Amino acid sequence: ILDVCIERDIRLIYLSSFEVYSGYRSSFLIADESLPLLPKGPYGETKYLSEMMIEHSRRTQGLRCAILRSCSIYGPSNGRPKFIYNFIDKLKRSQPVVTHLYNNGLPSLDLLYIDDFVAVFLNMVKSNFSGNLNIGTGMTTSTQEIAEVLRNLVGGNSKIDEVLIDSDTAGIAMDARKAQQIFGWEPTINIEQGFRLVLENLKNE
Length: 205
Prior knowledge:
Layout: H1 2-8, E1 12-17, E2 29-31, H2 42-61, E3 65-70, E4 72-74, H3 82-92, E5 97-102, E6 108-109, E7 111-113, H4 114-126, E8 131-135, E9 141-142, H5 143-154, E10 160-165, E11 172-174, H6 177-183, H7 191-204
Parallel strand pairs: 1-3, 2-11, 3-8, 4-7, 5-10
Antiparallel strand pairs: 6-9
């Protein structure tokens, strides 16, 4: 792909992930484009290696490229993150919902609704932007809070439990100020609104 893009002068848009920062041992970290990459685990390391290959081609062969690093994306029919759909299934069955508790606190995610992601992606496609761009809401929500929001929407009285995990977790919030400055983009759908849309879609399936 890189060779074809270079030979035909095609601009490449690569979809990366917040996972390239997952090696930081911080319960809350705001990641802008200047933060050094520090991946952890196969997925993050794969994204990291891909970015390194792209950067090398950009630097040595003049590849025109934009790298879009997003936080966790969710939405109807997406099925991800999987734990959200697991929580919904448990709540509908009035079963306990189990969240994790790490040594450095509750795991938390920066969650972005799919329509908001598509909006910034289309802006990038239509523009001549080259470089790196981090996309997210700039805030994180713990899995416990997510479970509570879903319980309020689904109804019922399922208990929300915690299981201790003898490890650390990274809570990464993506700093999207650069995208706001360049494209005037900002998220428009909050978590409760997004979850309502997910639940409505599940009801109609």
